[in-house]
Amino acid sequence: MNSQSNAAKTVAILMKRYPQKADMDLGNPADSLIATIFSARTTDAQVLKMFPAFRQRFPDWKSLARAKESDIAKSINTIGLYRNKAKSVKALAKMIIRDYDGRVPKTMDELVTLPGVGRKTASCILSACFDVPAVAVDTHVFRIAHRLGWSKGKTPEKVEADIKKLLPQKMWGEVNRTMVRFGREICIGGKKPKCWMCPVAEWCAYKPKTKEPTERR
Ligand code: SF4
């Protein structure tokens, strides 16, 4: 069996195990984009907790563009890097109104010009909101792609390119969506992934596979 079919099989198994949509996929491009920007260096749970009140205060791009940066910061001060994020989101609102007629753009080239938006965030939005095939490489995808033997790339861009070569386009968007949950539950960071309970261990190149810890008596 070649590595392409192993990779596709791996993603198919993860898709069955993790059918939920991404936590930051909030049903429309504007909410999803802002929430994804907010989620950097913060847990998704923290973002989901503060987001409804934030949106009530600033319900659209206009209200964000007009707001004082300090007021935006105050309304999001439960999440990490809130001052930088307030600055980004105000600049983002202004740019979306000025350059994109109030709509989130639908291409990678346009998305990465927006304040606070890098390739990873752009890829999340493309696949979740616009059905455009994209691979978002965050820390989970980066780590798991290396363990699986999909990539030896030292940068997210190289890992993204390697994954795109391995998988059919229709699976690109599933990689981040499923691996974030898989990376929190089983193929966790640090030295001890939970290989003994891994549904894709058969197709994983990681050599020092871990065993279930035995209970101390
Ligand atoms: S076998 Fe272990 S290292 Fe490989 S994907 Fe599963 S949990 Fe991760």
How would you describe what is shown here?
With 217 residues, the protein is an all-alpha fold. The chain has 2 domains: 3-20 and 135-203, Endonuclease Iii, domain 2, CATH 1.10.1670; 29-130, Hypothetical protein, domain 2 (Endonuclease III, domain 1), CATH 1.10.340. 56% of the residues lie in helices and 0% in strands. It contains 11 helices and no strands. The chain has helices at residues 3-17, 29-38, 44-57, 61-66, 69-75, 82-100, 108-111, 119-130, 139-148, 156-166, 172-185. Helix 2 runs antiparallel to helix 8 (119-130) and helix 8 (119-130) crosses helix 11. It is globular, with a radius of gyration of 19 Å. It starts with a helix and ends in a 32-residue tail after the last helix. The site of iron/sulfur cluster (SF4) has 13 residues, from helix 9.
Percent strand equals under 5%
CATH class category name of the largest domain: Mainly Alpha
Radius of gyration: 19 Å
CATH architecture heading of the largest domain: Orthogonal Bundle
Find the structural class using helix and strand composition: mainly alpha
CATH level-4 homologous superfamily of the largest domain: Hypothetical protein, domain 2
CATH T-level fold name of the largest domain: Endonuclease III, domain 1
Q: Count structural domains.
A: 2
What letter string, H or E per element, gives the SSE order?
Answer: HHHHHHHHHHH
Strand count: 0
Measured between the Cα atoms of the first and last residue, the distance is 43 Å
Mean pLDDT: 96
Number of helices: 11
